[in-house]
Amino acid sequence: IGEDVKPFTPEKTKEIVMSLQQPAVFCNMVSDWPALRWNAEYLSAVLGGKRIQFRLGLRTMDLVPQFETRCSYVKATLEEFLAWSCGQPSCLSGPFSCYEHSRYWAYADYKYIAKIFEDKPEIFQDIRWSDFGFPGRSGKESTLWIGSEGANTPCHLDSYGCNLVLQVQGRKRWYLFPPGDTSFLYPTRIPYEESSVFSKVNVPNPDLKRFPEFKNATAHVVTLSPGQVPL
């Protein structure tokens, strides 16, 4: 099959998305999407000096997840974030000055693309969820995550519809669980997060004394590369 031929039609893809009961990763479905050029440097140029909120967490491996309520927050430009994430000396002042790069990770998370690029609506068309069987869906209904090395989100289930994520730059390790494992993950709600159910378990470093049932869960661990879409 040529690189320009997608492995599934939009109709078949949606059928898979809506019926699959096991974790999966789609490959070769987005090779023609303009959004694949959205690396951090490109987005920094597009955004100019626009400030966005970053969540910061410690680079530690505790037995409990670092929930958002335990994190710090700063507002900064993407250019300032990139300089800090590279360890540049210029960051001794500015929004990240209190957070030593060797001790912290930072994450611009859950930003609605429609809000970030409200003055550049043409960029919404760079994302084509119609290829996955959702006609009319573009970047306008999507969210954007940008993180430094080590940035992470506690294991969770979003309780609305289905989630498709496009990896654009770098690599990210995902721990995916089938729906049948939910009870083994000790689900809980956290304040201010109405749309998600979180696991009490720090999945990469579980406390099996407190959460013994977690040993019955089967994590599908995948490291995503640019152009891949997990389900």
From TrEMBL:
<feature type="domain" description="JmjC">
    <location>
        <begin position="105"/>
        <end position="231"/>
    </location>
</feature>
<dbReference type="GO" id="GO:0005737">
    <property type="term" value="C:cytoplasm"/>
</dbReference>
<comment type="function">
    <text>May play a role in cellular stress response.</text>
</comment>
<dbReference type="InterPro" id="IPR041667">
    <property type="entry name" value="Cupin_8"/>
</dbReference>
<dbReference type="InterPro" id="IPR003347">
    <property type="entry name" value="JmjC_dom"/>
</dbReference>
<dbReference type="Pfam" id="PF13621">
    <property type="entry name" value="Cupin_8"/>
</dbReference>
<keyword id="KW-0963">Cytoplasm</keyword>
<protein>
    <submittedName>
        <fullName>HSPB1-associated protein 1</fullName>
    </submittedName>
</protein>
